[in-house]
Amino acid sequence: MAGVWVFRNGVVRLIENPANEEQSTVRRKVLLHTPTNEVITSYASLERKLIGLGWERYYEEPDLLQFHKRSSIDLISLPKEFSRFKSMHMYDIVVKNREAFKVVDMAA
Question: By the 8 A CB rule, do 106 and 39 touch?
């Protein structure tokens, strides 16, 4: 369950997309390719960067984009639609590619 818990008028509720709330000051997370200082804005861009780092694309699962590195047991699994690409996916990429990516806050 991703989002922000808000307490208002004695009621606690989960706001799944806080950027859409009118009084939100939450910052959006983005994936940054550190060697080029480029914000990843599409899977095409991300795929080029990962392939350059030695990752190979798997095509077996139709609902996911998957990448594997032959030199490790790591597997990166991402939702098929970039609009469903969340911070947990970004951190997974960062953990497996510390020298090439980081997650940063971008003003919403």
Answer: yes
The two structure tokens encoding residue 16: 């799944």
pLDDT, tens digit (0-9, with 9 covering 90-100), for 35-94? 999 999 999 999 999 999 999 999 988 899 999 998 889 999 999 999 999 999 999 999
CA distance 82 to 99: 23
Q: What phi-psi label fits residue 89: left (phi over 0), alpha (psi between -120 and 50 degrees) or beta? A: alpha
User: Distance (Å, rounded) from C-alpha 68 to C-alpha 107?
Assistant: 32
Q: Which amino acid is at 80?
A: K
What percent helix, strand, coil does the chain show, rounded to 5? 25, 35, 40
Tell me the whole-structure pTM to 2 decimals: 0.73
Instruction: Please name which of 103, 86, 85 lies closest in space to residue 94, comparing C-alpha atoms.
Output: 103
104 pairs with which residues across the strands? 30
